[in-house]
Specification:
274 residues, alpha/beta, Rossmann fold, 5-stranded parallel β-sheet, 12 helices, 5 strands, globular
Length: 274
């Protein structure tokens, strides 16, 4: 069943028919909150290869964001049962399930919503060079306008938009090439609610080149034994022409102050300005 059809099934059918099973299902221990076009689809598939981890029905559940109105019973219906949990615990000693929704990081309302229900949950954020992330994001659309046209227009909007108007600004960020790369601004909202030891920051570029090493770092974070996943092939990968050199130089300078703020916040330097 395709991911799209799976989502339709769980939104329409499970909300009304399978919601009765929610008392027998568990909520996630781990939530991957971002970011779009950084490798979260791959991580969704990698995590469940560990013997102690079972995935949700599909990725990008969006409950704490766009699907909040569907209710907690709907959300729980997307996770394993208490019987599956017990079986895994008896065999492997520990059980974990998870939600991967990279749009969570952008919504200011999401951290508090998660904390109210899952205050002890662990969070993962994969961060990709915002220059490359924005360009990759562009190729998910229909490319009716040139990438450079879209960037120029977004800069004008960002100079005018009221960031204090949370709903208006979030509506813009949710589709923006540029604003999705303001990582420090986004993480601030999460650090106000969750402690830093609950949030694991992963560099997307390192995740792509040293997958098993990073996966074992994640398993350490989850207090699980190391495990070399058998399938670390890249998921949801798209191919496109390289970015124009002048555009790349322009965006490197544009994101420089945002990246410097991020490096200071997390006490790490990703060298994205090279």
């Amino acid at each position: 069943m395709s991911n799209f059809l799976s989502k339709i099934k769980h939104v329409i059918v499970k909300r009304h028919v399978y919601g009765w099973s929610s008392p027998f299902r568990v909520l996630p221990d781990l939530i991957v909150i971002g970011v779009v076009r950084s490798g979260t689809t791959s991580l969704y598939h990698y995590l469940s290869q560990h013997p102690s981890i079972i995935k949700s029905a599909y990725d990008e559940l969006g409950y704490f964001d766009s699907n909040y109105d569907l209710g907690l019973n709907w959300y729980k219906s997307l996770f394993p049962t208490i019987f599956e949990k017990k079986k895994v615990e008896e065999k492997n000693g520990k059980f974990i399930t998870y939600d991967v929704t990279p749009f969570y990081i952008y919504n200011e309302k999401t951290p508090q919503r998660i904390h109210q229900i899952l205050p002890n949950s662990k969070l993962i954020v994969i961060l990709r060079n915002p220059v490359d992330r924005s360009y990759s994001n562009y190729f998910l659309g229909n490319q009716e306008k040139k990438f450079e046209e879209i960037i120029a227009n977004e800069k004008k909007i960002l100079n005018k938009i009221d960031k204090n108007n949370i709903d208006e600004y979030y509506d813009f960020v949710h589709t923006s090439m540029l604003a999705r790369g303001f990582y420090a601004e986004q993480l601030e909202n999460w650090y106000k609610i969750f402690s830093k030891d609950q949030i694991l920051i992963i560099q997307s570029e390192e995740f792509a080149t040293e997958t098993n090493k990073i996966m074992n770092n994640i398993f350490d974070f989850l207090e699980l034994p190391h495990y070399d996943i058998p399938d670390n092939s890249k998921k949801n990968k798209i191919h496109y022409e390289p970015m124009k050199k002048e555009t790349r130089r322009e965006l490197i300078e544009y994101f420089r102050p945002y990246n410097e703020k991020l490096y200071s916040m997390i006490n790490r330097n990703f060298d994205w300005e090279k």
